[in-house]
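Q: Hi! First time doing this. I have a protein sequence and I read that you can turn it into a structure. Is that right? Here it is:
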Amino acid sequence: MNHWGLSLFLVYTVCLYTNVAVESVHDYYEYDQDEGDIKEQPEADLEQQLRSAASVDELMKIVYPNSWTMLKCRSKRGSRFGSRERFPAEPRSEEPPAFAAAYFNFEILKSIESEWRKTLCMPREVCLDVGREFGAATNVFYKPPCVSVYRCGGCCNSEELQCRNISTSYISKTLFEITIPVTQGTKPVTVSFANHTLCRCLSKPDVYRQVHSIIRRALPECNMTNKTCPKNHVWNNHICRCVQQPDIAVPSQHSRSESLQDDICGPNKELDEETCQCVCRRQLRASSCGPNQEMDKHSCQCVCKEPPVPCGPNQEFNRDACQCTCAKVCPRHQPLNPSKCICECTESPNKCFLKGRRFRQATCSCYRPPCEVRRRRCEAGFYFSEEVCRCIPTYWRRQD
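A: Yes, that's right. Below is the predicted 3D structure, encoded as structure tokens:
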């Protein structure tokens, strides 16, 4: 009986362990799928972005592109960011956005940012061994043996870059120079030391050009020749190798970020990082509007500016052109003058006279009165002209 009970206990233990293991594996894969927003990017491109991040803010934007801006605003405002009020609509099929970085303590992030800034490439105060710096003889030494100067130091955001000085000044320091054997005692000497005033992270080709400044004019952009790159890659003159084109980044990440901000701010708006207010998107600012138009801050659409004064007589405001246009209707014989918004006659007695015709006021046109000459036969080489009502040479006839 004891053996039978022990067997049942072992079977129950094995089944329980199997269920726990299956649930653990299931939970692990669920967590792995929701771990962040960066899974969609190509691995090499993502690694390059992460290594090039220059601050905590840049790093968080890469890891959590869809929610980092809103999380910062939550921290500033000290309350949860509620979705904007909407009119009742059909239930959406997507799941609500999950903020993977919500558990971050912003005080910890500030501490990391402070430490990050301390390690940036910048001039730092260091102790410089005077004898080693100038290569003094073994029987010559200085007191104090070291001086305090500034030299470039710190870390760059990419392993391909080096922290180097790009601007140098010289400072003078007075020291004691002692020579062995001591025959003349100690004497003070003034020595100039290089003091780095400006630092920058430079690539290896830039460092090479800086060191070999004598042959700078003959040196190409890279110390190696350009070469044909594979598909979707371009040659980078700074790091002297083929890199992926920057526009290969996955578009779905940007579209997902826009859709998240649409849920918060509405269409055509985005969350401003400085003020944490919903503002019109950058591409929808006032500069994108046409003449006589302005950007409506509420709808983020271009609307007509209201005219400073009412439109004149026979004019009305055209919403398409955003300006006052003439609305006067003119008869056919008196066409419209748009600049004056009046019906004007284009003919005049003087114009008609120059055409050999007469002016008719009723129709605002020129007309030719009928000839009263009865005899219209002309000699050879002449023809009868209705314009002058007489015979004129044939070679005067119009060609048309």
